[in-house]
Automatic annotation (TrEMBL):
Its cofactor is pyridoxal 5'-phosphate. It catalyses: O-phospho-L-serine + 2-oxoglutarate = 3-phosphooxypyruvate + L-glutamate; 4-(phosphooxy)-L-threonine + 2-oxoglutarate = (R)-3-hydroxy-2-oxo-4-phosphooxybutanoate + L-glutamate. One of its GO terms (molecular function) is O-phospho-L-serine:2-oxoglutarate aminotransferase activity. The lineage of its organism: Bacteria, Bacillati, Bacillota, Bacilli, Bacillales. Its main location: cytoplasm. The modification N6-(pyridoxal phosphate)lysine is found at K200. It comes from the Bacteria. Its EC number is 2.6.1.52. Pyridoxal 5'-phosphate binds at A80, S81, W106, T156, D176, Q199, N241, T242. Residues 9-352 form the Aminotransferase class V domain. GO terms for cellular component: cytoplasm. This is Phosphoserine aminotransferase. It comes from Lysinibacillus halotolerans. CDD domains: PSAT_like.
Length: 365
């Protein structure tokens, strides 16, 4: 089955493209899920139908990443931004210190919240380099007594991405993976905690995925509000209160779709091919287009670039919009251009963008 509706070339940074197959399935099931005479949104979160959706989504995520048994998968709300708060609230105890690697605006925001709870340190920062790179592993400094080390695995705004992760030994490594979760295989056992808002690679906004090592749950602060404790959600299988049921249903469908793409290995190959199309145009443009990120730190999810001539850049964005490309403006804080090539962005959209970029250059240089 295919949709007759025209789909935009959607390069939005988030919320962003969802797989057409998933949208069509949700559309089919919207009015009558599994012959219940109602949509999944309209039924009790304690019902058998919903329970299956919920537990299957957890099981599929565990299987896709081969998440070890000593980890819990949680479905929370409040976005990645609430995780900026929950992480230090749960794990940064009085007198302790947490170390943050600064690689962009989201890491800065995460650090800002931690300052409310305890001592912090910059483990490394690429701010002076306009966040064009990810620090090398041996630049990262932390103490064995730190409560945790925090990183942002993919920097949505600057278009950089960690290619390998630091070994932090006994110190838990915490990662904001909002914009590259599910885009490639990752060894989960390297991390104490991973969090991600859903609206880039996982589904619609409204659900936040947390993958947390169980021993951290035991060490977490006890005297904090119930809803902000990881243990509350871990102890109740993320059903302490009403979860975002439709978002979790959509996440489950996205996970099935990822399985059908050959799992995380298959998805990674697709993502590499898609990003290469666009980076190649930038690199072969003789400086007409300029990438923001250093080559070794380039993101497979968010391709940030400028048109060297500022006036032409404005025109590029106008003409791109007219040609049906959506979401190519850089983040309002940095300007320029950004193509977000998340999992669900089809290779055809990337091909169309590369053709447009080549044509634009021919016309204007
Ligand atoms: C989008 C994004 C966020 C913010 O997510 P919300 O769900 O809107 O709070 C945080 N970190 C990164 C890396 C992001 O890409």
């Amino acid at each position: 089955m295919n949709s007759t509706i025209t789909r935009a070339f959607n390069f939005n940074a988030g919320p962003s493209a969802l797989p057409l197959e998933v949208l069509e399935k949700a559309q089919q099931e919207l009015i009558n899920y599994n012959n219940a005479g109602m949509s999944i949104m309209e039924m009790s979160h304690r019902s058998k139908d919903y329970d299956e959706v919920h537990n299957e989504a957890i099981a599929r995520l565990k299987a896709l990443y081969a998440i070890p048994d000593n980890y819990e998968v949680l479905f929370l709300q409040g976005g990645a931004s609430l995780q900026f708060t929950m992480v230090p609230m749960n794990f940064l105890k009085e007198g302790q210190r947490a170390s943050y690697v600064l690689t962009g605006s989201w890491s800065e925001k995460a650090l800002k919240e931690a300052l409310l709870f305890g001592k912090t340190a910059e483990a490394a920062s690429s701010k002076e380099n306009k966040y064009r790179n990810i620090p090398t592993l041996n630049e990262i400094q932390f103490d064995q007594t730190d409560a945790y080390v925090h990183i942002t695995s993919n920097n949505t705004i600057y278009g950089t991405q960690w290619k390998e992760f630091p070994h932090t030994g006994e110190v838990p490594l915490v990662a904001d993976m909002s914009s590259d979760i599910l885009s490639k295989p990752v060894d989960i056992s390297k991390f104490g905690l991973i969090y991600a808002g859903a609206q880039k690679n996982l589904g619609p906004s409204g659900v936040t995925v947390v993958i947390i090592r169980k021993d951290l749950l035991e060490k977490a602060n006890k005297n904090i509000p119930t809803m902000l404790k990881y243990t509350t959600h871990a102890d109740s299988n993320s059903l302490y209160n009403t979860p975002p049921t439709f978002g979790i249903y959509m996440l489950g469908e996205v996970l099935k779709w990822v399985e059908a793409q050959g799992g995380l290995e298959g998805i990674e190959k697709n993502n590499e091919a898609k990003a290469k199309l666009i980076y190649d145009v930038i690199d072969q443009s003789n400086g007409f287009y300029k990438g923001h990120a250093e080559l070794s730190s380039r993101s497979l999810m968010n391709i940030t670039f400028r048109v060297a001539d500022e006036e032409l850049e404005k025109q590029f964005l106008v003409e791109a919009k007219e040609a049906g490309f959506v979401g190519l403006n850089g983040h309002r804080s940095v300007g320029g251009c950004r193509a977000s090539t998340y999992n669900a962005v089809p290779v055809e959209a990337c091909q169309a963008l590369t053709n447009f970029m080549i044509e634009f250059q021919k016309k204007h240089q």
